[in-house]
Design brief:
This is Fatty acid hydroxylase. Pfam families: FA_hydroxylase (PF04116). The protein is built from ten helices and two strands. The chain is mainly alpha-helical. It has one domain. Strands 1-2 form a two-stranded antiparallel sheet. α2 runs antiparallel to α3 and α5 crosses α8.
Length: 239
Amino acid sequence: MEPLIEHILYDYSYFSLFAISFGYFLLLYFGLAPLFLAVCRLLESRNLLHKISSEKVSCLQVAFEIKHSFRSIIVFGFSILPIVFIIRLGVVELLPNTWYTVLGGIIVLFLWNEVHFYFVHRLMHWRLMMKHVHYIHHKSYTPTVYSVYSFHWFEALLLSTVPLTIMPFMSFSILAVFIFPLVSILLNFAGHCNYRFGDGIGKGWRHFGTYHNEHHGKGRKNYGFALHFLDKIFAGQKR
């Protein structure tokens, strides 16, 4: 497997790398979104999940989300190119693909994403950005699994730089970088699917889906991605 990975990283054209990256994000979105929703509905039928908002989502909203998500996927497709470029230049050194470097890399990327997403999201809520950029994501007043990539192209560009902004300072295995979008989109589905464990009373992991759902529906100051620790640290600051 290592020779194949090296062949792809060092010998493939940038056009081919874009095609692979674009296809990967396309598969994550269109392949996993309906599957994730089907699992949610199955768990709801068994009273394990509960809908957060009972408001019906229109077909027009879903079509809007898919259209803008497809544009975001095009932007995400380009995200591999600067990463491969700095690898080929020798700016970054890749770690071997062992189970602990892959797992450790995913954990570090997850934690870095929490910081990265928080500050990008705060930026998006500045008045100018909200009016011209972030309003697209907030068109999904009641979010769905198809909302996860529904961004303005500029917001998609900023969000796509999670690995790029840390790789010059820390070594990763390339498999960790490759797997991270899968972890990210699954967490995104959980935050946008309009379902949660429990009845919404109290706090805890069971109400994970509530935080971002309320950010869409009620404009609450939940700027974090999954852990929300930065929301607590900066709780006293104004929006």
